[in-house]
Design brief:
The structure is a homodimer.
Chain A (H helix, E strand, L loop, with lengths): L6 H11 L2 H5 L9 H19 L3 H6 L15 H10 L18 H14 L1 H20 L2 H12 L3 E6 L15 E4 L5 E11 L8 E8 L12 E6 L1 E3 L5 E4 L2 E6 L10 E6 L11 E5 L6 H37 L19 H33 L3 H36 L11 H8 L9 H14 L4 H19 L5 H28 L4 H5 L2 H29 L6 H15 L3 H10 L1 H10 L3
Parallel strand pairs in A: 1-4
Antiparallel strand pairs in A: 2-3, 3-9, 3-10, 4-5, 5-10, 6-7, 8-9
Helix pairs in contact in A: 1-10, 1-17, 3-6, 6-7, 6-9, 6-10, 7-8, 7-9, 9-10, 9-11, 9-12, 10-11, 10-17, 10-18, 11-12, 11-13, 11-17, 13-17, 14-15, 14-17, 15-17, 15-18, 15-19, 17-18, 17-19
Amino acid sequence: MTYQVPIQDIRFILRELADLRGVLALPGFEEVSEDLVDAVLEENARFVEQEIAPLNRAGDTEPARWSEDGVRTTPGFKAAFQAFAQGGWQGLPHEAELGGQGLPKLVAAPVTESINAGNLAFSLCPLLTDGVIEALSMVGSDAQKARFIPPLLEGRWTGTMNLTEPQAGSDLALLKSRAVRQDDGSYRITGQKIFITYGDHDMAENIIHLVLARTPDAPKGVKGISLFIVPKFLVRDDGSLGARNDVVCASLEHKLGIHGSPTAVLLYGSGQGEAGEGGAVGYLIGEENRGLEYMFIMMNAARYAVGLQGVAVSERALQHAAAYAAERIQGNALEGSAGPVPIVRHPDVARMLGTMRGLTEGARAVAYVAAGYRDKAAHLADEAERARCKAIYEYFVPIVKGFSTESSVEVASLGVQVHGGMGFIEETGAAQYYRDARILPIYEGTTAIQANDFIGRKLVRDGGAVARGQIAGMRETAAALRAASGVHADALAMIGERLDTAAGAYESALAFVLEHVREDIRGVFTGSVPCLMLAGTAHAGWQLGRSALAAAAAIGEGSTDAFHPNKIATAVQYAAHVLPRTLALQSAIRDGGLVDRYVRQAQI
Amino acid sequence: MTYQVPIQDIRFILRELADLRGVLALPGFEEVSEDLVDAVLEENARFVEQEIAPLNRAGDTEPARWSEDGVRTTPGFKAAFQAFAQGGWQGLPHEAELGGQGLPKLVAAPVTESINAGNLAFSLCPLLTDGVIEALSMVGSDAQKARFIPPLLEGRWTGTMNLTEPQAGSDLALLKSRAVRQDDGSYRITGQKIFITYGDHDMAENIIHLVLARTPDAPKGVKGISLFIVPKFLVRDDGSLGARNDVVCASLEHKLGIHGSPTAVLLYGSGQGEAGEGGAVGYLIGEENRGLEYMFIMMNAARYAVGLQGVAVSERALQHAAAYAAERIQGNALEGSAGPVPIVRHPDVARMLGTMRGLTEGARAVAYVAAGYRDKAAHLADEAERARCKAIYEYFVPIVKGFSTESSVEVASLGVQVHGGMGFIEETGAAQYYRDARILPIYEGTTAIQANDFIGRKLVRDGGAVARGQIAGMRETAAALRAASGVHADALAMIGERLDTAAGAYESALAFVLEHVREDIRGVFTGSVPCLMLAGTAHAGWQLGRSALAAAAAIGEGSTDAFHPNKIATAVQYAAHVLPRTLALQSAIRDGGLVDRYVRQAQI
């Protein structure tokens, strides 16, 4: 088995932490039972473990290749994508009215995570397609929805997001691609887009590019950007495929990781299609000059999904390292042993695995809890409650994206270290996660971009209201942990104390941010990423603290499942080795003003 | 320019922090003037920048290749090695009586660092050769020294260290390679060695393998290991090369990084040489069964050198990222700007670069300070003083190895992040450092092995005496920083406060280790790597604090060199963003007992 979906942990988090029952009781989910959720998770695990996880290494060693006739993906990917489509997995998270299965995000989240863990490079194709479906469903015209969504949902076509140009990465104000309106209401698009994931491939019949471009008379900056649908093959009125559009893949990037995912340079309007002169044929979505706003619809979904990718790579790296540490015999035990022992017996290997496991399971729990709020924001009957849950979900998006992905780099790096010299040998497989994970804190908005969003829109805008509510929750759990009795009381108390310290650090950082952001914005943003990481570290610790309480309760009720003491051990390791980082982060945030002053004075 | 040797920082550290003057005044260095040191550094910089740094990327993209006729290294490496040999660089750190140049380690350290920064994969060949020269000079017979050392020093031959076997990595007790004594006093060696750096190549005429193996009647475990010289080509009495010995390279590893460095599987006694049956011809070094002890001679030198490799990769990654951040225009300034600005103006990019620079320059200063103690340990007239300096140097070796290499992984990862999406594209070059650096915390003893050495032999054995002396030094610098006046008083005070906190954290961790190591060894070693990292973080902060004081003094004396305010800014950034990590590490160390208890109870 190359990868096993951690289905017991998934179920535990859904039920004990993320209020699965509450979500299933929401209006609109009447037909979704806990049994159905279990069945979906089990079928998903089978699909991931048997169909796509075994292709993960092939994606790395036999990357997608450019050819004159289009990009050829890794052998096996096309068949796997067909299986994916036939399994209905693309439709799983989407509304029933669109033709999706209408399952809660809370159920879609573990499914997405597992597919990504099975094969990160493969899964980017459905991930981007999800974003396109989401954007079309929110802002597309009825005709656009009818034409484009069903084939995307069915996995016959796939989608891409076209933002980046060589001079315009994080700063979309610098976009140059042009769109000129034609008499028939369509547009002709010209320009060059880079870093287009699955910008060309052979896994589906058609590719629907969503492209940001400027009309000739558009305002400068981000307020002059419009969003267009540009299909690879034009679509006739009956839905059949017509002329090849003037969008071509000029080359693929040679990347550090996710080799199986073709990253394309796309040329629009280079005169190579069959659809006439003047550029690629595109169709405006919504209104002109509102493209960035629409793109953010895709982007927020994609950011959350990339956060799940972080959890996914972490889990896979963890499983790989844990298996090696259990098998590799090397060195006597510190306390004495008859001979060499499996390296997991050495305290530092246990520390590394525990840190990996805590970061992975903590980030997973935070992501699922966030998904639960997303479902409530969409389905609760009470409007004020919906708004409250929406604000909490949006608060979580940069945390899920930033914390899970930064953690995945650390987890994958520890995974290499656990393997010792073997970790540096590519055939071992640990190195692939280290390479693959490195893109996650970059794409769909770097960690700094997430941190800007977090501070500017999620902490400052509401005066810290949502954050304070979360901190109060942390304090409550900390108090429960410290008050716990029973055989695990000392462990729970320690977790409670470290969680309390973390909550205090978060509170102090929040106060600093709110107090200084107006008069010293640079000083505050010098601590932006530390602040985001502090929040993520504390939230993950909170969820692991709740896990420990739930596990202790299960043990108290007679559970003999090793899962429960293991969960407590993971929470203990995280509380000891990770939660106190919040102290360092808080200190860094509070020094922001002085740091910024010195950095600006210096000429470095 | 692909890489610039940071010669101003090197000189600053040598003079202001590492007591170059005191070292040059030692007996034995009468002929080494400060001017000579400058000339060596300048010539070295020229060699690095012009000869080997430009080959760094070729080493990555055109790795060494196995062939039936032996391993072929990257085009250009052979000529570069000849230039290296002709420049006398191999001899630089070695005693004049051996034919070396007899320069202080304090001067050899920046030279080694720079060569490694220029080309890490290339530099492994001289690094290993240094270790072989050192071992032969310490424990070889006069005949062995006379025969093998001169060609190694001249760069006509190179050397390797052969420890690892598939079942024996960190645990050398599990070694199986055999050595059988022959009537002529030589031995026949059989067995398989893996991970042999430059185990075969085409850059020199001969390769001298130092090989650990067991004689037939040797005791079990590490006390039954002997050390042998096994030349690739046997050496005739006149020094000319004779028959091809029965040691062959069976394959090269496919590695995550340092592709230019061939990592060989070597077969001894597979019957493929011209030197008869029964195994490769080898010559015992010193006495039987003392091989591990001798190997540690090489290993300590190699560990220190690998620490310098950490500094080297960090510096190179830093230069790459800083150049990109100064050029890449993206996004308006937070405080407002007329248009997009270079990304270095964004606070989080400045944070990343400052963290990279602080870790790099801090680790460099610690390494050079350690080298100064090494020189004093070897050259001081007073025996007690020599012993004191030797203990301090040995205390530093695991810190230099562990902290510099772990930091290099972080620095290289931040370097990718600074580049955004471009960092993930191999052609950009940032990804290579991220891949290359990853081996550094593994080879020549993983960070956990360094941490075991640190706690067991460097903290506990002397009851914490050396460490307490160092902590007292930190406290003194912290007091001086807090008492400083002048325009930079607030910055110096902040650095002083963070350094004081770090010293306190170290003191507390040390007390915990000493108090609990007897009764709860596993609990203490659960915090072994955190303890080593705490020490490294505090020591680097100490040296940066001293740097800030020296820079402020220079400014006070009228310096208008931007180097000085920049140095203060780096110290400020490190004090804010890195030093407070010591709080988290201390907390983790103190929780070790509970963590270990729970990990052992759990079945994970």
